[in-house]
Amino acid sequence: MNWRMRAVVTCEGCGFRQEVARDIPEPTSFHLICHRCEQSLMVTVTQADIRTAQAMLRPRAPIS
Ligand SMILES: [Zn+2]
């Protein structure tokens, strides 16, 4: 299965909210560089996060 999970990460340093979309097949953690202050942020994705993301990927009518 190949799909993209979207997560919103709030920077601890400057409070900047940034959205990331990447392939996350299983619980993991990764580093993200804040686009505003360039601080390194630790992002943790749990099984619950993945389940929530998958639930939002149910087929729906294309937006026209
Ligand atoms: Zn920042």
Structure write-up:
- By secondary structure, the chain is mostly beta strands.
- It is 14% helix and 41% strand.
- The chain has one domain.
- The chain contains one helix and four strands, in the order ββββα.
- The strands form two sheets. The protein has a two-stranded antiparallel sheet.
- A hairpin with a 6-residue loop joins strand 1 and strand 2.
- The two termini are 26 Å apart.
- The mean pLDDT is 85.
- Zinc ion is lined by residues 11, 13-14, 16, 34, 36-37, 39.
- Residues 11, 13-14, 16, 34, 36-37, 39 line the site of zinc ion.
Write the layout of secondary structure elements.
Elements: E1 4-10, E2 17-23, E3 28-33, E4 40-45, H1 47-55
Antiparallel strand pairs: 1-2, 3-4
This protein binds zinc ion.
Zinc ion binds next to loops.
